[in-house]
Amino acid sequence: MTEKSAITIKNLTKKFGDLYAVAGIDMEVPQGAFLVLLGPSGCGKTTALRMLAGLEEPSGGEIWLHDTLVSNGNVGIITAPGQRNAGMVFQSYALWPHMTINQNVEWPLKVQRWKASDRRARVREVLTFLNIEAFGDRYPGEISGGQQQRVAIARTIAPRPKFLLFDEPLSNLDAKLRAEMRTELLRVHRLTGATSVYVTHDQVEAMTMATHIAVMREGHIEQFGSPKTLLDQPATPFVANFIGTPPANLIRAEVQNGRFVFHDLDMGSSVGHEDKKSAWLMYRPDTLRLHKSAGSNCLPVEYVEATPVAGQVIVTVWHGDRRLNIITGELPDAQLGQELYLEFPAHPSKVYQDNNEQF
Amino acid sequence: MTSLQNKPVPTASKPRWLTRIRFKNGSVLSWTLVFLLGLFIAIPLLQLLVDSLSNGGVQTWQDVLFGRIAPNLLWRPLRNTLFLGTFVAVGTVVLGGYLAWLVVMTNMPGRGLIGSLASIPYIIPSFAIALAWETVFRNDRLGGRVGLLQGLGLQVPDWLAWGAIPVALTLLVHYFSLGFLLISSALATINVELDEAARMTGASRFRVLRDITFSLITPAIVSAALLSFANSVSNFAAPAILGLPVRFETLSTRIFGMIRIGQSERAYVLTIVLIIIAGLILWANSRIGRRRSFTTLTGKGGRYKPQDLGILRWPLFLSALLISIATTVLPLLVLLGSSFSRRTGSFTDGFTPHFWIGLSDPNIAQGQPGILRNPQIVDAAVNTVGLGFLVAFFASAIGILIGYVLVRHKEGRFNGLIGSLSYVPFFIPGIAFGAIYIAQFGRPIGPFPALYGTFALLVLAAVFYNLPFTSQAGRAVMNQIADELEEAAVMGGATFWRRISGITIPLALRGIIAGAVLVFIKMVRDLSMVIILATPTTSVLSVVAFEYASEGFTQFANAITVIIALLSIIVTLAARRWQGAAQPWSES
């Protein structure tokens, strides 16, 4: 544990019955960081967050907040959730339906024995901060989803927590609101100076907001690092296939006579993998080329769709049941289902061991 | 950085339960509940077993189960009991579910009216419905007075006047509104999006109803069936009035009979047999229902758009209205009418207010004054109301705590025990439950004095007698409050009591009060348990009415019954009004 770590997690596990929801994770997160726990549903990210919050007991391992041991596998919860100086925004917002917006935001302050005048001032302050001061006397059922989200955030930050925990908070919002709230959340994060932990399955959210990302899968951390590290050096094929817009392409090539071979195409030297039968080759979308007619070393593929993004075009094609993404300069002149030809570069961007997994 | 080890490193541990108890919310509560349930349910139950062996030992059991008397004493009554329970459980779900669907989910006209009417039969004591039935259908098989129909010259067949059919129908009329209440409140709280999502798949209306709506309210249906089964199995008054005269016995009339003639060991054996059989049903049910715990209400689901019944609107309304009138207005009218009738069971020989307000007249009813002039009845009324309030309060309080523990701490080590113990009284007939309490608390225990003949014993027994119902209700209520609402309070640092009082109780209040009102009404109209615990100084209205009825003073009995019904109806309406005012947030 280093001096400036705000959150330290050591070999944390959580068992439900015989199943490990979280199967031993380690992490150190510096003060003020915005950590995103990223992964598909069922990867254990929400369970990890709830253990951080103190809502679940770990089955093993330790959680430290600054230099306090708050949970471990032996005792369970050592520091109660309310004593952790942490606020949480729930996926459903969990606004108390029987209290007005003002009461919702004020209630946690009452619990913490703030003076009435301070409470009122703080409620006013956070509601104004989130642009919802006009709705103070309404009930949660009487405002829109986006406003409810803002109330949930206001209620969470009102007691000035040192840690902000978010459980997929944007998943109930439409795309435009979501982009807006991302900015809003970053503003909240910056101005409160809190260390934030944010759970999502949306890698775009992760890449835009995080200072640190932990990519989780089946209870493990696949990779922990900055968004740039994850993008530049994905540690596993899973991460490569999960991160990036569009994500990198993976194909499984056979090793033959010191070369990688994929559907009779030569994919480059297999040096370092000669003793294996096959390997996963990763190609970044901008290294691939699409052609309308067949050429040497080209793979026939089926055209699916094209999405213009910021002056470039993301083209998606099928090869068998595998989806491949290519970034090109202009919209291809092709129909859905038309055959195109994909040219690979001389060498893959990265090569991964084949552990008999599918991506 | 990356950790890819497949198995976590095991951490050395000391005994967990020792260290965890301190931090685990709810464990103090669990211990308290286990203690209470043990003292007031488990131990008296064991006492029952001990007492069944106290006089004659194992021989008593052999006689009752296999002896020469066994078919008459046990097996035939058992068959009758199971028939009644099954009939009423199925009927309750079908009839109650049908009306609940019409009232909550369709655009049938007069939904409010049907909704109010459908909750009334539960208010009317079962012995009143049985008496009303007798007033109408009694035939000349036993001689003496006859009912209205026979009086008009119609020959009423025996199967319609006595035995299985009249008892089963009487009980169904009494209990189906329980199914209506449970199922309609479950329907009213399911998230409409779940239904809409199903409809988007192109599923037919019937399919959605069957696969989605029906499945979501399965817990409510199961508990409706369970409750009505248990209630009708332990019901005493209806088979006593409509069955006993033709020797249609159930286990509870048998138990009552045995206690009455002083053979309490045999009664205890019968009670234990009943508890075991019912326990098997309960166990099977929990096996089936284990995975059916849904947290459906997230606090933001939309409301149902009423289903358009189209051309069927009015015919369906008519069917609902007929059911409602036949089960509420009709019995009440018969009761009210016969309480004024000069001659018992006849509406054609003139009417008199004597049985209500008359002064003592040696020519009528052996000189008894009208019930409103009878000080004993006024005392009994005060006792009744007091009993209802106390029991409703304490039983609901314990029930909601049980619901809280079972729902919020699903992994709690005592949950199975708490859940089962709080269910147990379901399957103990009221009479037997009363008898157990006399056996257990009728004598002094340590520093505590004997409670027999005291009001306290009546309250104590009634609280635990009602616990299956209130803990079910508490559970249902807690299931409807999303965990996150409370977790959000935990994150704010709120203590257990703070969360309970600030979040959980306000949100659960509607459900708690609905449950408490039902308990109040149940106590006001209960007969089977109080009949054995009440003494002349602690008498209640239902016991007085039953005594009048069995002595042939039908008009007095019916007049008191009308009072009981009015009292219950007023309380129900007042509680509903208050609930509406107490939850302004749910009006939008």
Please give a quick description of this structure.
The complex is a heterodimer of chains A (359) and B (588). Chain A is of the alpha+beta class and 359 residues long.
Which descriptors would you attach to this protein?
heterodimer; A: 359 residues; alpha+beta; 21 strands
Topology at a glance:
The complex is a heterodimer of chains A (359) and B (588).
Chain A: E1 5-16, E2 19-30, E3 34-38, H1 45-53, E4 60-65, E5 68-72, E6 76-77, E7 86-89, H2 101-111, H3 116-129, H4 145-157, E8 163-167, H5 175-192, E9 195-200, H6 203-209, E10 212-217, E11 220-225, H7 227-232, H8 237-242, E12 249-256, E13 259-262, E14 265-269, E15 278-283, E16 289-291, E17 298-309, E18 312-319, E19 322-328, E20 339-343, E21 350-353
Parallel strand pairs in A: 3-9, 3-10, 7-8, 8-9
Antiparallel strand pairs in A: 1-2, 1-4, 4-5, 5-6, 10-11, 12-13, 12-15, 13-14, 15-21, 16-20, 17-18, 17-20, 18-19
Chain B: H1 16-20, H2 27-52, H3 58-66, H4 70-105, H5 111-118, H6 126-137, H7 148-151, H8 158-161, H9 164-189, H10 192-200, H11 205-216, H12 218-234, H13 237-242, H14 251-260, H15 264-289, H16 313-340, H17 354-357, H18 375-408, H19 415-423, H20 430-441, H21 455-465, H22 467-479, H23 483-491, H24 496-525, H25 530-533, H26 541-550, H27 554-582
Helix pairs in contact in B: 2-15, 2-19, 2-20, 3-4, 4-5, 4-9, 4-12, 5-16, 6-9, 6-16, 9-12, 10-11, 12-15, 14-15, 16-27, 18-21, 18-22, 18-24, 20-21, 22-24, 23-24, 24-27, 26-27
Largest interface: A-B, 56 and 43 residues
Structural class, from secondary structure content of chain A?
alpha+beta
Round the Cα radius of gyration of chain A to an integer and report it.
24 Å
- Biggest sheet strand line-up of chain A: 7-8-9-3-10-11
Measured by DSSP, the beta-strand proportion of chain B falls in: under 5%
Unreliable runs of chain B, pLDDT <50, ≥5 residues?
1-23, 290-303, 583-588
Order of helices and strands of chain A: EEEHEEEEHHHEHEHEEHHEEEEEEEEEE
Cα end-to-end separation of chain A: 35 Å
| Number of helices, where a helix is a run of at least 4 consecutive DSSP H or I residues of chain A | 8
* Poorly predicted spans of chain A: none
* Form type of chain B: globular
User: How much helix, percentage-wise, in residues of chain A?
Assistant: 10-25%
Largest sheet of chain A: 6 strands, mixed
Helix percent of chain B reads 55-70%
Main beta-sheet strand count, sense and barrel state of chain B: none
* CA(first)-CA(last) distance of chain B: 51 Å
In percent terms, what proportion of residues of chain A is strand?
35-45%
Average pLDDT score of chain A: 90
**Quaternary state, please?**
heterodimer
With helices defined by DSSP (H or I, 4 residues minimum), what is the helix count of chain B?
27
